[in-house]
Amino acid sequence: MSKSLGTLLFAGMLTMAGQPAFAEPVSLSDALARGQDVSPRIAKAKAELKAAEGRAMQAGVRPNPEISAEVENFSGTGPYRSFRQTETTVSVSQPFELGGKRRARKEVAAAEREFAQIALRKAEADLAYDIIVSHAELRAAEDRAKLADSVYARAVELARIAETLVDVGRDPPLTKLRADALLAEAKAESLRAKAQLLSARQGLALLIASDDPELSAIAQAVPTPSALPADAQSLDERLAAAERDAASARVRLAQAEGVPDVTASGGVRNFRESRDTAFIVGVSIPLPVFNRNRGNIYAARASGEAAEAQLAQTRLDTRFSRRDAELMLAAANERVSALSGAGLFQASEAARVAEIGYQQGKFTLIELIDAQEALTSANLKLIEAELDRARALAALGRANAQ
């Protein structure tokens, strides 16, 4: 461990010590609840759902009518110098959408609203996965830090005993050198474990918007996710299917927009000189000579094909991720069961006996170090196995999210 890293860690701990701390460590259920309340990604997904609902509301609105007024035959020459020959026309025109444009817009907006609803649920599931993993990583980092401190304390005591035995001439000077090297390694590992703890603490704090400088995680089992029925779609599949449906609706809208609309108008014309009035009626239809919206139709169809392909890929990815999570969970359960049973007890007992025997001169320093390293390794493997199990449960829960 470099001096600069040690100085950084020391300065970070001093800075955090001057800040207020929360009264209690956070449980997984509390972290999940707080994360859902304060997460920017959830706020973004909710805002996008509101926007989709607004577009759905607007999609069914018909075009507004237009009113126009025209004044003709004034301020000219001859008899048109004044306003005596003026003709005034007031008319109202109304566009009529043809080809099912309004219905197509409503279908697109409804599909996009459905997509936004599922996207919100996906954001919630993704956040839950991140919080579960971060909570488990913080708990594992705390366990590793405690173990590193314990190993360091044992190394300090071992160095003291080795120094005493060398001073009285029972062990050679090499024994003290080996014990001092072990002490230096334990100190470096303790600093590394503290750095990992600070990183894990910051990771969870960012997800739940906590300013607790001593944030810690309560040991809490990750709930086992319920299995999905064989014919049920995962959340990712539902989202991809919603995008496919929206793409199909956009194709129909592009085709409808290629149909020209009709604008009908009607009004009244007033002839000032004779004080007569007359009705006028008109119809206008664009001629689809240059623009038939073919490019947009082509693009919409291509987007639909891409959405269909994405749905197929998502189905493959979901099957793989679910199966992978199940295999990882089974393996982690086996490891936790094997490491937390008799093996850990035997390693602990061997280290205790070796320490007593070394003090009594029955074991060498190397034998004691081997026994302590075996115990440390067993504890670290158990911590990692429990962390892997939490990650697998989080991944399986995310794969089965609805």
TrEMBL record:
<dbReference type="GO" id="GO:0015562">
    <property type="term" value="F:efflux transmembrane transporter activity"/>
</dbReference>
<protein>
    <submittedName>
        <fullName>Metal transporter</fullName>
    </submittedName>
</protein>
<dbReference type="InterPro" id="IPR010131">
    <property type="entry name" value="MdtP/NodT-like"/>
</dbReference>
<keyword id="KW-0732">Signal</keyword>
<dbReference type="Pfam" id="PF02321">
    <property type="entry name" value="OEP"/>
</dbReference>
<dbReference type="InterPro" id="IPR003423">
    <property type="entry name" value="OMP_efflux"/>
</dbReference>
<feature type="coiled-coil region">
    <location>
        <begin position="232"/>
        <end position="259"/>
    </location>
</feature>
<comment type="similarity">
    <text>Belongs to the outer membrane factor (OMF) (TC 1.B.17) family.</text>
</comment>
<feature type="signal peptide">
    <location>
        <begin position="1"/>
        <end position="23"/>
    </location>
</feature>
<keyword id="KW-0175">Coiled coil</keyword>
